[in-house]
Automatic annotation (TrEMBL):
The keyword Transferase does not apply. The lineage of its organism: Eukaryota, Viridiplantae, Streptophyta, Embryophyta, Tracheophyta. This is ATP synthase subunit b, chloroplastic. PANTHER family: ATP SYNTHASE SUBUNIT B, CHLOROPLASTIC (PTHR34264:SF3). The keyword Hydrolase does not apply. Its main location: membrane. Residues 64-98 form a coiled coil.
Length: 184
């Protein structure tokens, strides 16, 4: 410890001008050298350091300005994108609502069309049934008439003998003659 305090105490004592040598005491010479170097650096390097710091400051300020501009531009683009998104969402909702309305309208039209087609088919079916019934009735009538006619002819043929047959013919001829006279 004594060496440390002696070196600070000996700072005030300078060797005479006649001797030149190296001072190997690091604690004694280091603060002096540092103060000289710092003094020279501050005196000569103040302008350079000031210019370097000013340039660095300007670059930082420019970077901040550019960042702010980019941020504002990004915010503006974000707002535009959000507005477009809201517009697209509204259009999508409109398409969905219109789509559902169109589906309901088409469903109603289809149901109406199916109802009309079913009604037409029902009418056609009823007309076909009536036509077939009328045809069946006409066929039955024809058969009944043919059977009645055959039965009447059979009865007439069995009941009529030659004499009755001749009387019927002469009565009919008489009626035709009377009719002819009336019409003349």
């Amino acid at each position: 410890m004594k060496n440390v305090t002696d070196s600070f105490v000996s700072l005030g004592h300078w060797p005479s001008a006649g001797s030149f040598g190296f001072n190997t005491d690091i604690l004694a010479t280091n603060p002096i050298n540092l103060s000289v170097v710092l003094g020279v650096l501050i005196f000569f390097g103040k302008g350079v350091l000031s210019d370097l710091l000013d340039n660095r400051k300007q670059r930082i300020l420019n970077t901040i300005r550019n960042s702010e501009e980019l941020r504002e531009s990004a915010i503006e683009r974000l707002e535009k994108a959000r507005a477009r998104l809201r517009k697209v969402e509204r259009e999508a909702e409109d398409y969905i609502v219109n789509g559902y309305q169109e589906i309901e309208r088409e469903n109603l039209n289809l149901r109406n069309s199916i109802g009309k087609n079913l009604e037409r088919l029902e009418n056609y079916k009823n007309e076909t049934i009536q036509f077939e019934q009328q045809r069946a009735i006409n066929q039955v009538r024809q058969r009944v008439f043919q059977q009645a006619l055959q039965g009447a002819l059979g009865t007439l043929n069995s009941c009529l003998n030659n004499e009755l047959h001749l009387r019927t013919i002469s009565a009919n001829i008489g009626m035709f003659g009377a009719m002819k006279e009336i019409t003349d």
